[in-house]
Fold:
Amino acid sequence: MFCYKRAPESSCASVKIRRMNTPSNEDIPRKVAASQGFHWVVEGFRLYRKTPLLLSAAFGVLFGIVMALGLIPVVGASLSELASPLMVAGFMAAYRMLDDGQELELPHFLAGVQGPLIPLMAVGAVQLLGALLIGQVMFGMGFDPQAVMEAAKRGDATPQEMQAILNQSMPAMLTGLVLFTPLIMATWFAPALILFGGARAATALGVSLRAVARNWAAMIVHAMTLGLLLVLASLVPMLLGLLVAMPILFGSLYASYQAIFAVWADDAPAPDNVISL
Structure:
């Protein structure tokens, strides 16, 4: 059982923070059926339909800002990685407002900036450092992404040359996949746990890792469903499909957080400023 001190309401940009009450025999994060992975995407689409234009526009703006940060020389990639949890937190706050039946406005997407800024950026720092370390491991094993891209762009590489490049890169790519998996697991729910539960960054990372591991079957179904959605979105010219698919992805993340963590009982007694997970 984990107990998080709840963040002050003023720090969450007017996001309604509700008490989380769990029966004594309820283990949080709870384990859900594998089929829930598909239903999370359906729920994300349902929430998206409430205000699709605003959600798509907000994603376009926020994603554009994150990408623009990445263009800054030397420090751009780092700033972009640090800012990504802030965008996730903003969408979690937006979907909370929609889920509560309240009117959504653009300032709600700034919940991460106006609220737990430092813990969210700490999650981004973990993502950045983890990606850098894993990248170094892959490079050390002989993985050269530039060589793979150049061979693919040339178009004149023989099957034997492509096979040789793949044979050299495959062990490093598989190793990278193994190493990236726990990193993604640890950061998947971390922004929502920080925003809604007031968790510290280290605690949020650990609980997120546990939650995803416990629900591995549902998460695989979820990933497969999202993968199909993103493939369909990529078929739309100029990547406009992503303006729909990505907000739905964030909506499904909110739905999965609710399913695995949240047992809301606004009127039930609970210790002040404490949320039990």
User: Anything to note?
Assistant: Residues 66 and 80 are 5 Å apart (CA to CA). The chain has a mean pLDDT of 82. The longest helix spans residues 159-188. Residues 3-141+185-276 form one domain.
